[in-house]
Write a structure and sequence with these properties.
5-stranded parallel sheet, Rossmann fold, 185 residues, 8 helices, alpha/beta
């Protein structure tokens, strides 16, 4: 199974994914950004873009890498990755469906004020990361247009990362589908 943690940059996906992995037996974290980094290392480089997700190979490579890891190791992959383009999410989710890999798609959500505060106070990435701030409006638009309808939303505005992870694990282990949306194919 895939537990995909979506949401804008700075919402806490990386922190939450590590906690989910600790709480969910037999799980591993796979950051799909590493697939993008591999593509960015190709020399000479691929066509210029401001986001490796725009490269057509990224999406099927994420699916193929994740399914191969699951075939090899079993268990659950916790995948923290922002995907705000609906077509890209559809390609990824239908790729998993074609291989019979179930996906629980969660969106970590926080209001804009909370997000800006978290980004400004991030000691690891640094305050007011232009990259993270750049995606706040794109996230808000995706949330309104399609993203929240395609996932189980976990509002982290008033939750600690541990509390958010616990909510996700309870939903996954309980299989109750609270807030679960129809799988896109």
């Amino acid at each position: 199974m895939i537990v995909w943690l979506n949401g804008t940059h700075g919402v806490g996906k990386t922190t939450t994914s590590a906690l989910v992995q600790q709480m969910l037996p037999g799980s591993r974290v796979f950051d799909a950004e590493k697939v993008g980094e591999t593509l960015m290392d190709i020399k000479p480089g691929l066509p210029a873009t401001d986001n490796f997700q725009h490269w057509p190979p990224w999406r099927p490579l994420v699916v193929e890498t994740a399914r191969r890891v699951l075939d090899y190791a079993g268990g659950t992959l916790v995948m923290p990755m922002t995907v705000l383009v609906e077509q890209y999410w559809r390609e990824i989710s239908s790729g998993f469906a074609q291989h019979g890999v179930p996906v629980r798609h969660f969106v970590l959500h926080a209001d804009q004020e909370t997000l800006r505060g978290r980004i400004a106070g991030d000691a690891v990435v640094g305050p007011d990361s232009p990259f993270r701030l750049h995606y706040l409006e794109s996230y808000a638009e995706a949330a309104r247009a399609w993203l929240h309808a395609e996932a189980e939303v976990v509002d982290t505005s008033c939750l600690t990362p541990v509390e958010a992870a616990r909510q996700i694990v309870l939903r996954v282990e309980g299989g109750d589908g609270v807030g679960q949306k129809a799988k896109s194919t």
